[in-house]
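Data card: per-record layout.
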Amino acid sequence: MLASVGVSGNPELEGAFATIARERFVGPPPWQMSKGGGYSALTSSDPVVLYQDVLIALAPERGVNNGSPSLHAHWLNALAPRAGERAVHIGAGTGYYSAILARLVGAEGHVVAVEFDPALAAQAKANLRDLPNVTVVQGDGADWPRESADCIYVNFSVVRPAAAWLERLRAGGRLIFPLGVPGPVQTRGRGRHSLRGAGYRIERRGGGFAVSWLGAAFFVCAEGALSGTKEEHEALCAAFDRGGAEFVRSLLLDEAAAERLWLQGDGWSLSYDEVAE
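The structure for this 277-residue chain is written out next.
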């Protein structure tokens, strides 16, 4: 799987995916697979089916899934968690990728897994109870982390990064999150997902926040404080319409020259300029 997404030479990540049993985190069969905006039941109850590159429903009435292993392998490779680091997983669901993060940071590291939905947070706490280096929190992802972190991994779509993610990212720390234009609210178990979206990796450097594009990404949309305003949705949609999302190189705070920006937010922006070293 790692080779299929261009990841090589990462035995720690390969070992984490090989060791953590996905079936522990997706509930008992029959499982539902997300496909084409809806869900279909998997006819087999053999856990081997869960090791295909598929999205498995966690809360289908809200469109919440255990996401694509290939995408997460690609993103976790880019996040590059290291032994002993403090990681924060925001939008943890039932804890599968939290467990993989816990394996990557090791016994000397720590993972805080944050989940907005109380039922999913309770499942994550039960699923991760045997991992002493994981703390599960039920809360709004906009409020976390509350202490400095080396890695912040966000698994829902937002129209802006939360202030806490940027403020508490340590020097050399990495943040990955999906930026996305919310689609319409759906019924019949589809939830609300981004219509257009991209994943970004942010690294805090001495001169600011360096950005790299991780490709297109379509996640369930944020609830709570990060759901965004109509004006933010429209501004992000216009930015995607203009193109150039893949050429963003820095995240700026405060004001910046408009002609070099891909997206201007309230007190922040995404720019084509490289971060000064």
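Known properties of this structure: Helices lie at 11-19, 69-79, 96-105, 118-127, 163-167, 230-242. The radius of gyration is 18 Å.

See the next section for split statistics.
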